[in-house]
Amino acid sequence: QLVDDYCACSMRSLDARVAFDNSGYRLDSCAFRVLANRCCSLRLLRFHSQHSWLVDQLLVPVIHSNVHLQAVYLDQAHWLTDSSVQALASACPQLTHLSLRDCHWLSSSGLEIIGSAWPDLSTLDLTCCWQIDDPGLSALLTGCQRLEQLSVAKCYGLTDESLLNLRSNKCLMELDMTGCWRITDSLLEQLTEFCRSLKQLKIRECSRVSLAAIDRLQKKRIVTDLKPPAAYRLFAAVDHNGYPMPQLNVQI
């Protein structure tokens, strides 16, 4: 009864990553049902990748019972589907932080749901969501124009086309595009021109980004995870006849 009363009235955070670890007891589906049976005041919900029992049928009722959720972290929840995203969208309008890192099941339809449900979403992590594409991300970014932190790292299908929608976002401060090898210098130029709040940009493994672009980012005081060589300078090299020599930018 004490546990039920606490869950119903006082518990604001359920972090299943550490539940019962100190006692050597691992949280399973039965224990989770008992714990979440009367939860109705949660603000934060977080799960661990080892919970293979976490499926839509178990999670969706908890979502519908906690309509004031503000932060949800479902990192590496491989056994969920877009149905859980739909449940969050319909039941939790106050959500501001969402992490779906390594949720390979997330589709473009899921992105469209996110974009239409939370215009005030501030933090979104889509790292390694391999199925998402330009149309889906474009729909999301059109709806979520107050994002402050966004990660699309290792989403290999994305190009400049979808990420250009960030130009209308005046709040963006941190953007992680690690491994998005299709993006180009043109995108970076657009982002630095329109996203005046941008402070941190991760572009490691973006093979089409040149050293010249990285140098321009640094001049605008945008912190990146790539540094041009110390001896690198932008200058017009000429041959012995005084004609400009072609330059090759190599990123290693």
UniProtKB/TrEMBL annotation:
GO BP, sorted A to Z: SCF-dependent proteasomal ubiquitin-dependent protein catabolic process
Top-level taxon in the UniProt lineage: Eukaryota
GO terms for cellular component: SCF ubiquitin ligase complex
InterPro entries in the cross-refs: FBXL15_LRR (IPR057207), Leu-rich_rpt_Cys-con_subtyp (IPR006553), LRR_dom_sf (IPR032675)
Domain F-box/LRR-repeat protein 15-like leucin rich repeat: 32-222
PANTHER family: PARTNER OF PAIRED, ISOFORM B-RELATED (PTHR13318)
Record-given protein name: F-box/LRR-repeat protein 15-like leucin rich repeat domain-containing protein
Organism, scientific name: Macrostomum lignano
Lineage: Eukaryota, Metazoa, Spiralia, Lophotrochozoa, Platyhelminthes
